[in-house]
Amino acid sequence: MNIAINKAHYPVTVLGPGKRLGIWLQGCSIRCKNCVSQDTWENDAEREMPVAQLLNWCRKTAANGLDGVTISGGEPFDQPQALTALLDGLIRWRTKAKLDFDILCYSGYPLATLKKNHAAILAKLDALIPEPYVDAKPLAHVWRGSTNQPLLPLSARGRKVYAQYLNAAADPANKRIQTMLDDGRVWYVGIPGRGDMAALECSCKSRGVELGGVSWRL
Ligand code: SF4
Hints:
6 helices; binds iron/sulfur cluster; single chain
């Protein structure tokens, strides 16, 4: 089974609690207005890899421990079979190695659609952040881009880990975006506030650095 991946990183500390493996799937059919991850939209066969290879990378990269796995995109539920295989592998690893990490997944689909079409996948998750990004609704809560996106624990582990964060406010004075360099590209990980990426672009320009091929504009 292959899975199309945009990127994967460890540790991610801005999309869920603790030190996490972050896995971004490639391909999104939802296409929310002003999405900051437009580089993940196109289906791209060149970004496919065997799920088993991705799981090996997870085990090796987080060998010293992890608090959770965050799966985002792109739209993870646009690859339901690959997502199922990935979740099955993560759960097998967690059980066999007696680990206690949680699995959080983002989706731009409405909760009702996910419940109707993907109940078996939801049953494998500890927490879910569903619903499309709505640019007209403000950023108010941690790990979410707009106020229509709830944080939903889906398991006993999820309820334990996420209870304190369900309505936790995003702190505008303490925004955290991770940056990383990979293959000559700069990655920004996290949930930027409205206008933050334009401000970053402006700030880079004033220092003589032109950003080309940015993910928040096609
Ligand atoms: S915010 Fe998520 S669901 Fe919406 S277009 Fe961007 S990647 Fe797709």
